[in-house]
Design a protein that fits this description.
By secondary structure, the chain is an alpha/beta fold. About 55% of the residues are buried. Helix content is about 45%, strand content about 15%. The longest helix is centred in the middle third of the chain and has 22 residues. The strands form three sheets. A five-stranded parallel β-sheet has the order 4-3-5-6-7, sandwiched between helices. It has a five-stranded parallel β-sheet with strand order 9-8-10-11-12, with helices on both faces. It binds 2-deoxy-2-amino glucitol-6-phosphate. 2-deoxy-2-amino glucitol-6-phosphate (AGP) binds next to helix 4. This is Glutamine--fructose-6-phosphate aminotransferase [isomerizing]. It catalyses: D-fructose 6-phosphate + L-glutamine = D-glucosamine 6-phosphate + L-glutamate.
Length: about 375
């Protein structure tokens, strides 16, 4: 993959558009249909060791931390191993209890982020086993970890991460499937997830085709001074990532909350000038999410929903293709990358180089 813009006006636009191919690349050569599982050559963790893992702790910063939150959810759902994610920048400073039965996973696009590298080094010093989910081959974090999964997103030039986020989450789905099939995930469920993974590139293509409509929506919301992003369980990390994307390139203030937390405080902010972006997959929380939309509408809040079907209470809905429920969060953030992009464009921002930010944060 070359570094030229290939006919796109910005690297961000190029990288958003590359996602079908990028996801295809993270899957390529890894699926084993015979056993309904995946092979992850560099993992360096045999089946016996994988069965002894009692807990998984994922560490990353910014977008990679958000990918880690989705990864933790996938690992809990598919492998039934307790898992959570934490900002690497905080982890090191709270003198964490390092447990020998916990597998640590460091996530990083660049593989050079100082906060993540320092957390890995601290963990290794304490004898922990640390794997990496990293994009840049041979980077510092890839070298320091005991093994891992390369994300194969290709070079990402724009300061804000898009294709690497999607590929990282997909890499976590592969890892979760692998661990699940070693533990208690059935052949049938393994097959179902593999079929879902194979549908992703085509479904991303379908989302990309909606760019013109999303651009119109972005122009409608670009006058907002602040935006609220909400989602529940699988949708919440998507909301966090979408709000970060909007902040980074449009400089519009944005907050992300679990929809269930609205009534515990943020509902006080809702009024016509504060639009809400709601992530509403067709899962077991659909009705509860719809109830949250009613609460927002009752306060005259504008709502943009990202959902699997039109949402009656929303002013606008971006409809995304349905995949297996466990994999839905991989797709739901993509229209919001396009939304953030066109919002920033409408506001005349320097999209590839947002103010105050660097692509790779190699200092503390
Ligand atoms: C992404 O849009 C951000 N610019 C930023 O949050 C980034 O994800 C973070 O600094 C971590 O970088 P890494 O993935 O290269 O470690």
């Amino acid at each position: 993959e070359s570094y030229d813009m290939g006919g796109h006006d910005t690297y961000m636009h190029k990288e958003i558009s590359e996602q079908p191919d990028a996801v295809d690349r993270v899957l390529r050569g890894r699926i084993d249909d015979r056993f309904s599982t995946v092979h992850l050559g560099g993992l360096n963790l045999d089946a016996r060791e994988a069965r002894t893992i009692r807990r998984i702790k994922i560490l990353g910063c910014g977008t990679s931390y958000h990918a880690g939150l989705i990864g933790a959810g996938l690992i809990e759902e598919l492998a039934r191993i307790p898992a959570d994610a934490e900002p690497a920048s905080e982890f090191r400073y709270r003198n964490p209890v390092v447990d020998p039965d916990t597998l640590y996973i460091a996530v990083s696009q660049s593989g050079e982020t100082y906060d993540v590298l320092a957390a890995v080094q601290e963990l290794k010093r304490k004898g922990a086993r640390v794997l990496g989910v990293v994009n840049v081959v041979g980077s510092a974090i890839a070298r320091e970890t005991d093994g891992g999964v390369y994300v194969h997103a290709g070079p990402e030039v724009c300061v804000v991460s898009t294709k690497c986020f999607t590929n990282t989450v997909t890499a976590f789905a592969l890892l979760a499937l692998h661990l699940g099939r070693i533990r208690d995930l059935s052949v049938a469920d393994g097959k179902r997830i593999i079929e879902g993974l194979r549908r992703l590139p085509g479904q991303i293509q379908e989302i990309l085709k909606q760019e013109d409509e999303i651009k119109k929506l972005a122009k409608r919301y670009a006058d907002a001074k602040s935006m609220m992003f909400i989602g529940r369980v699988r949708g919440y990390p998507v909301a966090l990532e979408a709000s970060l994307k909007l902040k980074e390139i449009s400089y519009i203030h944005a907050e992300a909350y679990p929809a269930s937390e609205l009534k515990h405080g943020p509902l006080a902010l809702i009024e016509p000038s504060l639009p809400t972006v709601a992530i509403i997959p067709n899962d077991d929380l659909l009705e509860k999410n719809r109830a949250a939309l009613e609460e927002i509408k009752a306060r005259s809040g504008r709502i943009l929903a990202v959902a699997h079907q039109e949402q009656e209470k929303a002013d606008h809905t971006i409809v995304v293709p349905k995949n297996e429920t466990e994999l839905d969060s991989i797709l739901m953030g993509i229209p919001l990358q396009i939304f953030a992009y066109h919002t920033a464009l409408a506001l005349g921002r320097d999209i590839d180089k947002p103010r105050n930010l660097a692509k790779s944060v190699t200092v503390e």
